[in-house]
Tetratricopeptide repeat protein (Anaeromassilibacillus senegalensis), 215 residues
Amino acid sequence: MTHPSIHQTELAAALFDLVGGPVPHPYEQEEEARALAKQLGDRSKVLLKVIELCKTPTTPEQLYLTARAYSFLGGPYAGETERYATAYLSTDGWKGLPQRTVEEEGILINQAAANRACIVSDLAAAEEHLGKLEAAISHYLEAYRLEPSQAMYAIKAADGMAQRGRKEEALAFLRQQKKSRYYTPVDRPGRWGAAGRNATFQELLNAHILKLEAK
């Protein structure tokens, strides 16, 4: 028989999977999770239920689910996001999360690093909301180091610099990212036969440089 606390964590994961994004959970919990989500109705209430089910989070699974749920709930919960994201990052991480290297839109992604970058970015966003801009910049840069194909992490770090009155530093940093290997568009295999080019990194970077220059 499954221990009640394990069942609650597994149910929390199945619930989060419905409203926050894919996470490992037993198939057996899905029916109960769907019924509970329907009963709760509102997405915010489902996220709060995820947090409630994790009780006082101690395991990496509970800390991950709690931190991410609070991050989705936004600014009013920035303090909680900061607390639990920091606690999660001090662990070895949730080993059940995808750990492989996969190809997405023509780019190789290290899933373990990307999962960690996601939490680091959640922490940065919370710090930004709490007015801790230097810490936020540092963590956006850390997320970018972990997942260098994600231009938005670099952009958010640059935005923080600009907010601190360091516009020229922000622009120099963004221009430097044109040397990234992800700046060059790559062939994107077509899922339904229509291949194309993935220029997302380049487009986001160039658009933000122009936006900053115009300020």
